[in-house]
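for the recovery benchmark. tokens below, seq after
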């Protein structure tokens, strides 16, 4: 029986459990997760440069000759009940603590290249399946703890981006969003495809971008480029270190969904862009603008972060103002709601011909919702918001 080493991380309420298992068993575990969620390759993908290929070929050769690779690290998000049932020193089987499909709870935090090398080595020599590989499991009940652990462990790796790091916990994060935001009508994913046809329906990758934007409090978050700004990276780590941060994001996302639904009550016989209330949050720039406005109001400006107590008071105050506004919108007739939205003004503002349209629209919505929050939602209509940029 393999020796199992248990260490408890008090900082993030995680168990670090290191063991060894047959290569074939490990690859089967990874394969199941990969096949079900299609997102484990969101971790740093298998490198294809000439140097990387040579290194991997050397690694494959070494594995065939019996080399022992450094431990791969797998994250597992489980229920509180199963987490508390873990007994240090007892035999450990990760499948026994999962609540459902491995796809929704397992993530490769570190070891993509080693895993690729093991797959190659086993395809060449099936006997490799019987060899042992060291595996470290980080077991937690919180996606926030997983994100924090991943960022701290990997923040110095290049060319990791914040977006790519988050993609490692993509499925667990989205699973938690569905659980924590009941106002979410539909999460559109590769496994659950479709398009937005009503309020409260969002693409999964858009939700991940909202998560990043909320933490960084920036409307222009280029998730495809490497984040070279170390201050942004540190801001992100600092935020996920706060145990209340995750709940504050879910509260912000919930407010986005309820405002989306309230705006969507406005119907119009006109055709075209921004003629109906639902059209406002059809666009990611509007969603980003709203989330960032709440982030700035609750978390504070980057570099002038508020204390945890101040953040909790702020989110509570914003929620109260938001709820009053939503109730007010629901009491309005269709005509009154249309007059409040002033979509004709918004169309005129967005139709200005400028370079970098996406960046311009994000700036417009960022300023618009910043005004809405600064006025505590006590506005006559949205024109003062749309014209704020």
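predicted aa per position
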């Amino acid at each position: 029986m393999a020796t199992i080493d248990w260490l408890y991380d008090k900082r993030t309420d995680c168990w670090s459990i290191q063991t060894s298992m047959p290569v074939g068993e490990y690859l089967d575990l990874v394969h199941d997760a990969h096949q079900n969620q299609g997102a484990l390759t969101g971790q740093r993908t298998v490198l294809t440069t000439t140097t990387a290929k040579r290194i991997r070929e050397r690694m494959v050769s070494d594995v065939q000759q019996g080399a022992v690779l450094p431990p791969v690290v797998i994250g597992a998000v489980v229920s509180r009940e199963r987490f508390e049932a873990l007994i240090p020193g007892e035999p450990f089987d990760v499948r026994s603590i999962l609540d459902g499909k491995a796809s929704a709870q397992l993530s490769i935090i570190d070891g993509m290249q080693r895993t690729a090398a093991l797959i190659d080595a086993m395809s060449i020599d099936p006997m490799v399946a019987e060899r042992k590989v060291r595996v470290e499991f980080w077991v937690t009940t919180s996606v926030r703890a997983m994100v924090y652990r991943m960022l701290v462990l990997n923040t110095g790796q290049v060319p990791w981006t914040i977006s790519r790091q988050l993609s490692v916990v993509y499925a667990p994060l989205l699973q938690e969003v569905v659980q924590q935001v009941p106002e979410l009508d539909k999460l559109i994913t590769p496994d659950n495809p479709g398009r937005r046809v009503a309020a409260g329906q969002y693409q999964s990758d858009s939700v991940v971008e909202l998560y990043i934007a909320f933490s960084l409090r920036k409307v222009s978050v280029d998730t495809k480029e490497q984040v070279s700004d170390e201050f942004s990276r540190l801001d992100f780590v600092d935020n996920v270190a706060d145990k209340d941060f995750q709940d504050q994001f879910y509260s912000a996302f919930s407010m986005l969904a309820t405002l989306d639904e309230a705006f969507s009550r406005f119907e119009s016989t006109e055709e075209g862009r921004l003629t109906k209330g639902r059209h406002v949050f059809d666009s990611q720039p509007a969603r980003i603008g709203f989330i960032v406005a709440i982030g700035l109001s609750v978390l504070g400006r980057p570099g002038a972060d508020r204390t945890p107590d101040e953040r909790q008071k702020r989110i509570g105050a914003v929620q109260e103002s938001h709820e009053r506004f939503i109730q007010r919108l629901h009491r309005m007739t269709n005509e009154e709601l249309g007059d409040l939205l002033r979509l004709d003004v918004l169309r005129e503002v967005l139709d200005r011909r400028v370079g970098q349209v996406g960046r311009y629209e994000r700036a417009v919505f960022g300023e618009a919702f910043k005004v809405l929050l600064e006025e505590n939602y006590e506005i006559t209509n949205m024109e003062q918001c749309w014209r704020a940029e």
